[in-house]
Design brief:
This protein has one domain: Alpha Horseshoe (Serine Threonine Protein Phosphatase 5, Tetratricopeptide repeat), CATH 1.25.40.10. It is an all-alpha fold. The chain starts with a helix and ends with a helix. Helix 4 packs antiparallel against helix 5. The chain is 78% helix and 0% strand.
């Protein structure tokens, strides 16, 4: 194979990979939309398609990165299929140790399956990871990090839920409900932070143009 043929082949591979990544990102975006609109069956179809194409894909347009298997597990969780949800979320945590949303939802699945001890441990680990992550992006990922939980409401919910977990008589339904709410808030915060960032960028660009 001559140099030109090798170059053409490499360009073809790069183009194919880019197309596949675009397809996966599109499927995850559609799945997120369906999940937030409380249509988990539609969301699951999109997430499974994405996972089959690229099982190592993770959301990279947001400061909060989330693996495709986490989304598969969350969709299964929302449909009430806890066995499949656990399998997907265990796969997610084994792939990416930093995926705190996977830890949170794995814990919620385990609590739903009455595995109290391990479930509380996983929920608490996921919540602590999210709390520390918010602190980190607020302090070091400027200016984008300032758009994440600016009022501290999610961190307050996390503090309250972790206090419930560490209490003497744990109210399991309350912990599950609080964990689900925090997961939903974190997912919504992705879009809120992105919108605020875009708005800030546009305002800055307009301002910069006016100063010239």
């Amino acid at each position: 194979m001559n140099k030109l043929s090798v170059l053409s082949f490499m360009l073809f591979l790069s183009f194919t990979a880019a197309c596949a990544n675009y397809h996966v990102a599109g499927q995850v975006a559609k799945g997120r939309g369906a999940l937030l609109q409380e249509d988990p069956k539609v969301a699951l179809a999109h997430f499974k398609s994405a996972a089959e194409t690229d099982p190592d894909f993770y959301l990279n347009w947001s400061l909060l990165q989330e693996g495709v298997w986490t989304y598969v597990g969350r969709a299964y969780y929302a449909t009430g299929n806890f066995g499949e949800a656990r399998a997907a979320l265990e796969k997610a945590t084994s792939r990416y140790n930093w995926d705190n949303m996977a830890k949170l939802y794995l814990g919620l699945v385990l609590l739903r399956e009455n595995d109290r001890s391990r479930g509380l441990k996983e929920v608490d680990a996921g919540l602590l990871g999210l709390y520390n992550w918010i602190n980190y992006v607020n302090a070091y990922q400027q200016p984008d990090g300032s758009f994440w939980d600016p009022g501290g409401y999610i961190k307050q919910e996390i503090d309250q839920t972790r206090a419930l977990i560490q209490s003497k008589d744990v109210d399991m339904p309350q912990v599950i409900a609080a964990g689900e709410y925090i997961g939903w808030r974190m997912e919504k915060e992705m879009d809120f932070a992105r919108q605020q960032q875009i708005r800030e960028d546009r305002t800055g660009n307009m301002g910069g143009g006016g100063d010239m």
